[in-house]
């Protein structure tokens, strides 16, 4: 009894749906499992961040395949679709993604769905609201495809998650554009870290999206064990597949762009830094040249400051003027010479 | 009534074509839909930058598949071909491309085509004139393949768009050649930004072209649901496919070339900048060496400027000459020494 | 007899298992081979670091295929699965991996398994404890799948090894995070060696994991010669395959991240080093400028130290003050000039 | 009549071949077309750099498929093979290649071949002599395979062109070896431009060769519409395919080598330039150290050149010697100090 | 007659083998060809570096397919397997490889094998001893598989060659380890050339190994025209295939490692060189700072060496001491200032 209550605590909602409409209020889990065996419609029970025991209890009631249950308990699965023919259950793992723009971080969460003929068990890790939104649409009778039962829900969930992928890709696109402006605009900064970290997030993002292509392709083509999906449903998954392909294209392109921009950043930085070094070198050359010019007067004055008894110039009437003129002309001469050599 | 007029405003033209010739003047949309049901030929209705409601109205009349309609409303789809068997409609998305040479930007627009047995609905986003040109050819009876109905139009549109791809590829080729000349010609400039941005456009371009290969291949091989295409039409799509492959080859090559040229640019820049630095260093070395030579006279003159009472040289008759000679010979000696060390 | 004892020394354990439970104590090898021919269950004989002769003796008793035996003797095989139809034996090579965190080294060991209808011969190179753990589970009746015989053991061994792969991948992930912090944190160090060596280990790791995907896929799909595997077992291998795919994804991503971080490291280093060089250059410029300023007093003092007979300033009453003022004003003037030029 | 003569002007040769031997002199085009309809052998008409009208006239006579004709008129096609089943015509485009060693340029030309049951129309753009050589062999009865009709000619043309590919690859190989010697030999030059340009030509070359692999594979395996090729002919195409694969391998390797050598070139250059900079820096250090040593005598001499009334040293008998000794010892002291610091 | 002797000169050995044993002494070529037609076993004739004529003569006797013969004459083929159904001959090209450790060069040679039902013609280019070793094993009856005729020999030859590949890969591995030690050990050397050249050899090596995978896979799976190979033989080729895959893995890894190590080498070099430059810059700064300090005494002494009539300090009793104290204190002051600025 007490244990039961525990499971109920992690159940977001739980109801029977018939001919596409909600036909019950919130049910306790065990009643739901019984209803699933009787109804022509289906029961949807939604678990939110359940513990392993919670999942196991529900699994027992709905006779879910143990291996799939294990995967639903551990988060961080690859997106995938598994058909358990004996148990007549499909197991799908989806990875909703959110982009935290301020930190430029891609947050990946996880949703596991068990799809039976007359029930749907959803397990959510994280606080993604996709399931809540689909439930609300279903309750409001707005889910156009609701006649088709649990698969319609599966489709809608995948659809919304893939729509979010497009938003994330667009947000990353914006950040790349911003980085480009920075790299080719303000020249003296180093954007290596930002580029690298965004690239890392793009890789993370790709890991959530890429492996989803194959299972959705299977759903869309309805091959093999999936022959049961009617053509109408398949068409809808084709749409989802199309969106995944588009996002995948974008991710590959963004990954490639970020590699290029990293290279461009390094090139720009090295150009900028070399420019600074050159200007510094030029300054040094000028200062040294001026100092060299300054040495001339000192040397000449030194000569006429010698104490030899016999230095004819010292007795000249205009000796001093002559010395000053000598100093001036040598300095100017050096200046002209250095100027010609482009040292000044 | 008023609403009707709205749709008419975004309809470029709308007419019935029979045995390859235009057999009607411009029709209002609803009459066109009725004509499509009666004619042995086909009706072509062309929408230009329609709103969502415009498209939905036309979709209702022609019973177009809802998912495809949704895609036709939202622009920025991947090029693709979808077969809606139940509605007997093909849906194709094409992405015409234009190269704005002055800004080195690839502009991608979008054309969506619904092809039924007896109608063709074209939806154009942007101001691309391919559809207008095909319509004009058709009206003038010049469209050689016009006996084959809507597929002939589809082929011709794809054909013209892919021809434009070739022009864009050629224009990019020219810009790459120009960049190459700059990189290996004028040595002191940094072409990183231009190369990067052109690379980015090439990636954009590739995204418009690459995914088109597969649907056209399907049209060309006429497999599966496309078995309906007669062999004659297939041959034409083979031609289009061939052009796409050629453009794809070019794009891959250009992408690869731009990567190489970016690397070459960096290498050239670093070589050039190092050359400048070396020349600067050499100048510094020379200036410093001259300054060091200039120090010798100062030091010697300083010595003979000391005031000791007993300095025999001071009393010499030719002491002054001797001092000057000493200064000269030491200076020349240093100069020779520095010369030998390659410091001058 | 004496020889027999040799083989026994490298046999870890050897027992008969029936209906999933151990039904014998440790048996000598030859009795085990006989038991394998009679039992409905199976015999598991485990060799630990055996010599070639040891393996050959066991191979003879159990009629193992010679080529596979050769591979089991030589370590350093690729992970693989071989079906020997004539001998009704499967041969699987697995490569357990351990991460020595302190040295950041991936240690790869090897396990070879011969799976017959009623026996299992395991050959272990290295001191990996996976086989011991599986044996213990089996002995304790804890191996849920033990009804299915040797294949269940094969599955469990693969399962544990692949679980270890995940741990290794996580440990590498931690080291990458640490490297990232270092690269973007403490700026003056060179992390090239650490990054390179970790990359090398990731390549080593990938070589152990990647080739395993295909044989497990075969086991999972039960195609061709593997049709004998019942559906239940296949499901379990699907789980293993799923884990391999996940680890493979991680490895590819880590390899790619390490390439990026190596590039980022070089970029950061060059930026840091250039910063230091710039500061050094600036210091040089300042020192040189101060020295150039210091030359002025020397030159002026030198002029007034000349010994000309007619130097009017020398007789001035405030000549000395005037000279000092001249020196001061020229020095200040130069200082102001250099300041304006940003040389100080 | 006059028009006819125009076509004749671009026809290299035109004759009937029966049982592998030339059975006619040069025929005018229209007679050739008639002969093609009657003969058991085949007619080969060769056009050299024809205008569009020339090709169209021939196409009309031989009923060539319009789309293929269009491709034969426009040069710069991808290498390809197209089967026109209705017209019983194969259309093949081949791209002979020549390497202009002096300029290190790959020149790509084009040959289009229409192969019917009893005719062969060859269209040559550029001045490649492969067709002439094949014709000469055929006329001389040397073409071993000539019993098999037009396909034998097609094979021989492809064979010779692919042989030329091997020569081009070898010539490029030589240039790469030369570049390697330069990069690792003479250290101060920048080979970026040469490497880049050769890489560009390799890409051009690859574009001519790579797409040929697939059509020749089809000819070799004789699948589908090509079932008509007898086994003997297939064997010959296998040989051609083999050569293409070999050249393709080489091209990939050369492309990869050039990437590596570009990187090595940059590394070498930066090492060389840094060596130069270091030597320059060392020179500067030496010069500056010498100048610093030179300052000591000046300073000491300056002190004893001061005019204080009370300077005991000035009156010393050996004051002057003492001063000189002081100067000498300080200078030597500094020299020793600098030497110890490795500044000299 | 004389001509015959020529062929015999390039024949290494030639004998009949029956039920796995040598049943004849060395036979002349023509007798061997006759024996091949009569025996139940097979004839093996081995040619060593034959001329074209030699091969042609043997080809005539054994009716070998002309295209294959041509390939056997020209060396430098791709590894391959060709089935000539009409002639009941398989043609296989293998490329033995040797690593010359001292020069770090991969030497690739060539072996061509014609395998008929009752004969084996081997053509060896270079001085590889694999064929000799297999012949010796066969003669000694040691070739376990010799009951299966020529295919067993083919297998053994391939087996030994692939074993050598593993040795070469191991030797390259050693050299890479050595390079790694050098790159991360002795810091001031440039290893670019060695790394590049080893990379080049790895590419050469890969070209010999990679294309062999496919033909051996065919032999192992016994598909299509190879259905004749009995299961036992196939198993052996599976082993060879396994070894090829392992070597291929190694080569890819080595290629990737060498790319990484090249990058690491450049990074290390630039770090080292920058360290040297920084130390040099620091030396320069120190020297300049000392020189600047040395300027102070000169300037002060210069001031008191001026010849003004009215300079009160000159008459002071302790003027000289005061001047020396001034010089000392200013010098020390500057030294303290520079120390604080980290210029000393």
TrEMBL record, chains A, B, C, D, E:
Gene3D superfamilies assigned to the protein according to its UniProt record, in alphabetical order: CorA soluble domain-like, Magnesium transport protein CorA, transmembrane region
Annotated membrane topology: Multi-pass membrane protein
Primary location: membrane
Cellular component terms (Gene Ontology): plasma membrane
Regions that span the bilayer: 287-306, 318-338
Localization annotation: Cell membrane
Pfam family, one: CorA
Entry similarity comment: Belongs to the CorA metal ion transporter (MIT) (TC 1.A.35) family.
Protein name: Magnesium and cobalt transport protein CorA
Biological source species: Kineosporia babensis
Lineage: Bacteria, Bacillati, Actinomycetota, Actinomycetes, Kineosporiales
């Amino acid at each position: 009894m007490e244990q039961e209550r525990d499971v109920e605590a992690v159940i977001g909602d739980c109801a029977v749906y018939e001919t596409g409409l909600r036909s019950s209020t919130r049910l306790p889990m065990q009643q739901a499992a019984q209803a699933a065996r009787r109804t022509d419609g289906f029961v949807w029970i939604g678990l939110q961040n359940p513990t392993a025991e919670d999942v196991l209890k529900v699994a027992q009631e709905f006779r879910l395949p143990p291996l799939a249950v294990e995967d639903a308990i551990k988060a961080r699965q690859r997106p995938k679709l598994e058909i358990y023919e004996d148990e007549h259950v499909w197991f799908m793992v989806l990875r909703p993604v959110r982009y935290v723009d301020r930190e430029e971080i891609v947050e990946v969460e996880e949703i596991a769905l068990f799809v039976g003929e007359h029930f749907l068990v959803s397990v959510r890790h994280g606080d993604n609201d996709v399931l809540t939104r689909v439930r609300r649409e279903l309750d409001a009778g707005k889910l156009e495809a609701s006649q088709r039962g649990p698969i319609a829900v599966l489709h809608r969930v995948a659809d919304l998650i893939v729509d979010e992928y497009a938003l994330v890709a667009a947000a990353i696109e914006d950040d790349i554009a911003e980085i480009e402006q920075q790299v080719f605009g303000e020249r003296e900064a180093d954007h290596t870290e930002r580029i690298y970290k965004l690239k890392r997030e793009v890789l993370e993002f790709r890991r959530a999206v890429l492996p989803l292509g194959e299972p959705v392709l299977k759903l869309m083509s309805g091959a093999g064990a999936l022959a049961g999906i009617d053509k109408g449903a398949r068409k809808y998954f084709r749409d989802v597949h199309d969106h995944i392909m588009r996002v995948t294209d974008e991710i590959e392109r963004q990954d490639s762009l970020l590699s290029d921009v990293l290279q461009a950043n390094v090139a720009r930085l090295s150009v900028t830094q070399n420019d600074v070094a050159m200007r510094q070198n030029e300054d040094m050359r000028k200062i040294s040249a001026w100092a060299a010019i300054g040495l001339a007067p000192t040397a000449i004055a030194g000569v006429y400051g010698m104490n030899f008894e016999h230095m004819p110039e010292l007795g000249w009437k205009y000796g001093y003027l002559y010395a000053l003129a000598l100093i001036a002309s040598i300095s100017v001469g050096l200046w002209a010479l250095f100027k010609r050599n482009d040292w000044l």
